[in-house]
Amino acid sequence: MPEIARKYNLMVYSSALLFLLVGVYIHATTLKNPYTGLMFREDRGTWVIASIDPAGKAREWDVRIGDKLLSVGGQQPELMKLGDRAYLKRLGVLQFERRDLVRFELRSEPGINDVYKSLFAACAELALLVIGLAAYRNKPESYMVRRFYALNVFMAATLLSVYSTETVLTGLILPVVTSWLPYLLFAFFVAFVFRTVPDWISSLMAAYRVLAALFSVYVLLVFSLGTIPGWTRSALHTALIGILLAIIVIAVVYWRAMDRAERNRLLTFVTALTFGFMPFLFLYALPDLLWGEYIALPEMTLVGLIVLPASILALWARQKLLDIRFYLPSLAIHGLYVGLVIILIAALIRSNASLTTLTLCGAFVILTLLHRFNLDNFKRQREKRKDCLDRQRLEMSIKLAEHRNSRDLLRMPAELIHSVTDIEGLCFVWNRGSEAITYGTGPFAEMQELTNFRQFNTNVFEQVIDLMQPNGTVIGYLVLGPKKNNTSFTPEELGLIDKVKLETVRLLMGAALLDELRGARSGLPMKTSEYRLLEAQQAERVRMSYYLHDHILQNLIFLARDLEELHDTEQSDKRLTAVWLKCLYDTQRDIRMLCDDLCPHIIDQAGLDAALLWLARIVKENGGLTIKLENKLPETLSSLYKMTLFRIVRELANNVVKHARAQKLEIRLWEKDDAFCGQISDDGIGFDPANMNCVRTDSQGFGLVTISSQVAQFGGDIEIDSEAGRGTIVRIRLPKQRGEAKDGATDQGAATR
Fold first, then answer.
1. Rounded distance, CA 494 to CA 381, Å?
2. How far apart are CA 303 and CA 155, in angstroms?
3. Whole-model pTM?
4. What is the Cβ-side half-sphere exposure of residue 131, based on CA atoms within 13 angstroms?
5. Which of 211, 227, 272 minimizes the C-alpha distance to 247?
6. Are 736 and 675 in contact, with CB atoms under 8 Å apart?
């Protein structure tokens, strides 16, 4: 393998150096003798001008169709026949004779536009060469990458040849590269898209290799004889168009049989190929085949060849293939836009920037700016609609939650009266603003669906009691049904009902006051702390997404690509195997770290004490801190509390390692009668807690906001005691919920490390 690698390296870098040397020579010669645009025809042994290309230097000369060419540089003109026309093989001082026997001399002198054209062509060729070398340097052992490099070199050679007026050397290069370019394009397509090449495609490629070799030999022979048949250019155009059609047909035929990865590669290749060859196809090849004239010069249209290799290299560099289906509509619109730009540029050049084309370009720019303005306005309106929908959704959720909570307020007193008084049923009705909240028992349970309790059959009511505030305002009703034994309510029962009614009124007044406060608060701008909490949650999602993408996904893509290469080439070595194993080990480590971050399994497997010991060891290894750990929480602590406390301690400990510059860290956890408590302290540089919610934007600020949110969800408290240069003490308190142990705490362990 090393010997083969050295062989390929020698071939690749030698070809690149040779291309650079040949390119410098051809560009220097072309710049010295710019393109004239003159085509000649033979007339009784002499050569006369048959056509003048407006893109050539001859448009600036005083020459006419029919002028006779006498000499070039004082010697007999040497021309290369191309069908029934001919072009000069070498340039110099051109001597012409008009029909009135007037002789004059002209010389093709380079201008500033010729310098710009030469630099533009050189940059395009160099870009193709650099793209090919960059891909090869990244993965030199891949035969697909070597084909990619060869394709780039041949495309660069095509650009070099069509831009050149050095006809001797480029006359040998152009037939060869144009003969083999369609094959290299198709071969790379097959290697890039298919994991296993179908037999009939391999046979088709072998047949094309034979035809390309024969055609190259034929063109070289006729070039040496000084006569090129006019159909050769049409044949090359037909071959390239045929390859493009073959790629599309193969894509359609094999689409259903491909898996998702192959489909994505196929769409990516076809999309890049379409946008890359669209200018050449529609502005040069098809017009030349159909009408014998082209819309734009080939050197202008072939610049689009850079799009294909640049797209492929960008995808390789990112080690992933985008799901191109989501981008096709946008690419189609942008491709149409770029095509219109190319057509306008070509029209400007062909018309020498006439008033009409300048007007069209101005109108195009104005339409572009208007479209951009409308697009930005549409995005803003869409964002407003989205925000409005989100607010409406939130309001509906809040309203449903409030309705449920309001009914829960009425449920307790209703069930208390029902169970104590042996009543058949009763119903509480609370007029909460414009909404009637009801809760009934027994036969009055169906009143929960009524908006007005008076719609119910009032004949079954035993008694209706107003729920009245101290100021005399009636906020609802207590509807009592008959007792089961048809007896009257005893004074004790009436006293109990009255006490429950008064307590219910008090609860409902508190809920109404809370509604008023919430309504007043909703009119105020969102507090910075709430925004910071949302920002912290979003930052955590982004961090997790990038971690999955940049670590685990990239390793899997790298492995898949190399294993596909191994499947195709059936060649490997110990170095590649070692790379693959390292990639697998790194992926296992990353997945383990991610799992520990999301849900620390060590807590379920070994308990909170073991998890804290493991965390202390990791923190000590990363930060070199002296850690004192004291855990006096009960072993019967629920999993939810364990996970929350562990995450809080881990976040605070990581903040100490990253930001505090501390030498000591103390972690204490203990139980009280009504809560679980913790204290995490360090001797670091400290900070100002007052600025936690409105100033800090780093990870520590996000971490503290997230911890505050977790504590608040338990109805707990967090206290931060810190000053600059005095260290930090964070105290947390999580109230016990129903089902948590209230006594029997056991000391799980205390250690100093």
1. 61
2. 10
3. 0.49
4. 27
5. 272
6. yes
